[in-house]
């Protein structure tokens, strides 16, 4: 696979600086990389500068948190090929970052009720200059000795249904899609089989139908956590609706050691099909 369209830097919950991520992509033999941080594009300028220097094709990208049905449906939407300077997008992202700080505060209050005290300022300093998310809280829980591993932090406290769970502030899909389209980009449903409320029997077909009406352009078929039969099911769906087929490793760094950058992705021809649908050239 020469194109990895899903990765994270330390501007969200990845470990690498954007420039180091670009170097890692080159070392992995990739032609194209998308840096798709959660609800932020703050890492793009650094990644773009390095990519131009080393001759890697970098696609502007983001992974939006989407929330619908009063939070019962939560999923991620990958945005690609948009104008990173779009004012409307920048304003929306800055609101989302503020909402994530409020969410972190609530999460720490819930943890305190469980007898675990973490310092909000230290947490925000740790996640700066990017957006704060549950993985930062998980790291802090490990550092404070309250949990042995980040996985344990999620299982005991942070997962949906656990005592310190607070849903991510999410846009509605229609809003995220219209922001992306207005900025010349496209939206692709990320790892559908990992999304709350979407994985129920017949769920994916039903939900995809709903979002297509709202302008969904693509679907992430290739993801390390998708099994082969799931990829087949998604491919059928993509063909039926003429959706772009995207894919990537969802690389975060050493925190998820089984996932290597470039280990999952798409071929050049699928990427070219995506480029034909985007209107922004950096
Ligand atoms: P947030 O957007 O703040 O809710 O954080 C979501 C991120 O948390 C995901 O993209 C994953 O990187 C991470 N995550 C979610 N569930 C788990 C889990 N069970 N174990 C480890 N990391 C997780
Ligand atoms: Fe993540
Ligand atoms: Fe995701
Ligand atoms: Zn991701």
The distinct ligands, each listed once, are: adenosine monophosphate, fe (iii) ion, zinc ion
Cα-based radius of gyration, to the nearest Å: 18 Å
> What is the strand tally?
7
Biggest sheet overview: 7 strands, mixed
**Strand order in the sheet with the most strands:** 1-2-3-4-5-6-7
Please give the share of residues in helix.
Answer: 40-55%
Task: Explain what the structure shows.
With 282 residues, this protein is of the alpha/beta class. The chain is 43% helix and 14% strand. It has 10 helices and 7 strands. The chain has helices spanning 18-27, 44-54, 87-113, 120-127, 134-143, 150-158, 173-182, 203-213, 228-241, 268-277; strands spanning 3-4, 32-35, 57-68, 73-80, 186-189, 218-222, 244-247. It has a 7-stranded mixed β-sheet with strand order 1-2-3-4-5-6-7. The longest helix is centred in the middle third of the chain and has 27 residues, at 87-113. The radius of gyration is 18 Å and the shape is globular. The two termini are 23 Å apart. Zinc ion binds at residues 6, 8, 63, 250.
Descriptors for this entry?
binds fe (iii) ion, 43% helix, binds zinc ion, 7 strands, alpha/beta, binds adenosine monophosphate, 282 residues
Short précis:
This protein is of the alpha/beta class and 282 residues long. Helix content is 43%, strand content 14%. It is built from ten helices and seven strands.
Give the SSE layout.
Elements: E1 3-4, H1 18-27, E2 32-35, H2 44-54, E3 57-68, E4 73-80, H3 87-113, H4 120-127, H5 134-143, H6 150-158, H7 173-182, E5 186-189, H8 203-213, E6 218-222, H9 228-241, E7 244-247, H10 268-277
Parallel strand pairs: 1-2, 2-3, 5-6, 6-7
Antiparallel strand pairs: 3-4, 4-5
Helix pairs in contact: 1-2, 5-6
């Amino acid at each position: 696979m020469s194109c990895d369209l899903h990765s994270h830097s330390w501007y969200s919950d990845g470990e690498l600086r954007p420039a180091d991520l670009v170097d890692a992509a080159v070392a992995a033999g990739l032609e194209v990389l998308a840096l798709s941080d959660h609800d932020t594009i703050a890492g793009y300028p650094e990644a773009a500068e390095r990519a131009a220097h080393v001759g890697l094709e970098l696609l502007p990208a983001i992974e939006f948190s989407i929330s619908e049905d009063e939070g019962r449906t939560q999923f991620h939407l990958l945005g690609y090929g948009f104008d990173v300077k779009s004012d409307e997008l920048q304003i929306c992202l800055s609101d989302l970052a503020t909402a994530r700080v409020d969410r972190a505060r609530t999460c720490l209050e819930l943890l305190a009720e469980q007898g675990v005290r973490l310092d909000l300022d230290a947490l925000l300093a740790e996640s700066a200059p990017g957006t704060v998310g549950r993985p930062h809280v998980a790291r802090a829980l490990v550092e404070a000795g309250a949990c042995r591993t980040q996985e344990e932090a999620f299982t005991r406290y942070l997962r949906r249904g656990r005592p310190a769970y607070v849903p991510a502030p999410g846009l509605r899909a229609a809003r995220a899609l219209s922001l992306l389209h207005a900025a010349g980009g496209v939206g692709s449903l990320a790892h559908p089989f990992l999304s709350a409320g979407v994985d129920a029997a017949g769920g994916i077909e039903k939900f995809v139908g709903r979002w297509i009406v709202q302008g969904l352009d693509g679907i992430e078929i290739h993801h390390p956590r998708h099994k082969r039969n799931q990829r087949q099911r998604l491919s059928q769906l993509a063909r039926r609706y003429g959706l772009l087929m995207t894919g990537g490793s969802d690389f975060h760094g050493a925190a998820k050691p089984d996932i290597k950058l470039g280990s999952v992705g798409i071929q050049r021809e699928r990427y070219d099909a995506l480029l034909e649908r985007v209107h922004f050239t950096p």
